[in-house]
Design a protein that fits this description.
54% of the residues lie in helices and 11% in strands. The protein is an alpha/beta fold. It has 2 domains: 130 residues, Oxidized Rhodanese, domain 1 (3-Layer(aba) Sandwich), CATH 3.40.250; 209 residues, 3-Layer(aba) Sandwich (Rossmann fold). It has a 5-stranded parallel beta sheet with strand order 1-5-4-2-3. A 5-stranded parallel beta sheet has the order 7-8-6-11-12, sandwiched between helices. Helix 4 packs parallel to helix 5 and helix 15 packs across helix 16. It is elongated, with a radius of gyration of 25 Å.
């Protein structure tokens, strides 16, 4: 026999289901889904569009067509994906609101004998829970906030901390963006806002409140992704800052490594800098663009640091982390892996 399950109970058991089956269309699934979910669409994007359009004209005919399409797709899914599953297989099945789409697959799974559970309220209930949790959870943790000028190795130090067993909240990694006008990754698009929220929720869910959480200082937005207001408030209000100091030459070298893809496409770099014209002036931006087109990458990154990034970051830091003025800097001679590993062990020992 198969049953329904409420969102709170489903989340408590999320890691104990054998599978999480999202029966929504591929487009809905791509926007966001429960952590670990597989897409078992009972209507594809075009079928969903056709049925939705028809429903406005003739609800009965739309339901008849929808039932026909769903029945065909469920039959195919059962044939292609359930072979070899044991009778004890226990999937969680959901759609947008816990309606007919998930009920169709859930019912057949139960009739076969699998221990299926249908999520009451579907993805909509899950999304509401994520929003509530992202408002409530951030105050539960003790944050060590890595601060420092652009190119000082904050992200690499976070990675070294993770390698040493620290709890790390890599917001730029979750957002697939380095957090500046040049921060888009060449080989990885940013997630949707809902997708980022789910990834952040899944990570916070795993953290231990009794242990410190290391995180970089961030602005309100990372690329086009907005950070939850409650998380920013917690970082600014209760985070203990760590100031990282790295010589300018080493900072330039890190930027050359992180943004090497621009050296192969100077025009993309120049186009990204256009976004700074209003803030820094057309003449100054044109000078940076001329350096890039001439291949003077060390020069343009050094200029960007001194004339754009450093002043902006210093002003933001004074507003959000005034206590950093009283913190002894963590001075790094360079950003080699061995240096960062030593710094990570020191931070863990003094956390």
């Amino acid at each position: 026999m198969s049953y329904t399950i409420a969102i709170g109970d489903a989340i408590a058991e999320l890691d104990r289901f054998d599978a999480i089956l999202d029966v929504r269309s591929p487009g809905e699934f791509a926007e966001d889904h429960l952590p670990g979910a597989e897409n078992w669409p009972v209507l594809d994007d075009e079928e969903r569009r056709i049925v939705g359009t028809l429903y406005k004209q003739d609800p009965l005919e739309a339901r008849r067509l929808g039932a026909t399409l769903v029945a065909r797709n469920v039959a195919r899914l059962l044939d292609e994906r359930t072979g070899g599953k044991p009778k004890t297989w226990r999937p969680l099945v959901y759609c947008w609101r816990g309606g007919q789409r998930s009920l169709s697959l859930h019912w057949f799974l139960g009739q076969i004998g699998f221990r299926s559970r249908q999520l009451v309220g579907g993805y909509k209930a899950y999304r509401a829970q994520v929003r509530d949790d992202l408002e409530a959870w951030p105050v539960n943790f003790r944050y060590r906030v890595l601060c420092g000028l652009t190119g000082c190795g904050k992200t690499r130090l976070l990675q070294a901390l993770a390698a040493e067993g620290a709890q790390v909240l890599d917001l730029e990694g979750l957002a697939a963006h380095r957090g500046s006008v040049l921060g888009g990754l060449p080989d990885r698009p940013q997630p949707t806002q809902k997708g980022f929220d789910t990834a952040l929720w899944a990570l916070l869910r795993q953290l231990d409140p009794t242990r410190p959480v290391f995180v970089e200082s961030e602005s309100r937005k990372i690329g086009r992704i907005a950070l939850p207001a409650a998380l920013l408030a917690a970082l600014h209000g209760q985070g203990r800052p760590v100031w990282i100091d790295l010589p300018e030459a080493a900072r330039v070298e890190l930027l050359l490594q992180d943004y090497a893809h621009f050296t192969r496409d100077p025009e993309a770099f120049c186009q990204a800098l256009d976004d700074l014209i209003e803030l820094r002036g057309r003449a100054r931006v044109a000078g940076w663009q001329a350096q890039a087109r001439a291949g003077d990458w060390p020069g343009v990154f050094a200029a960007l640091m001194r004339e754009h990034y450093d002043p902006g970051y210093a002003a933001s830091l004074r507003r959000h982390f005034p206590a950093v003025a009283d913190v002894s800097p963590l001075a790094l001679a360079d950003a080699r892996p061995a240096t960062l590993s030593t710094a990570a062990r020191h931070l863990l020992a003094t956390a």
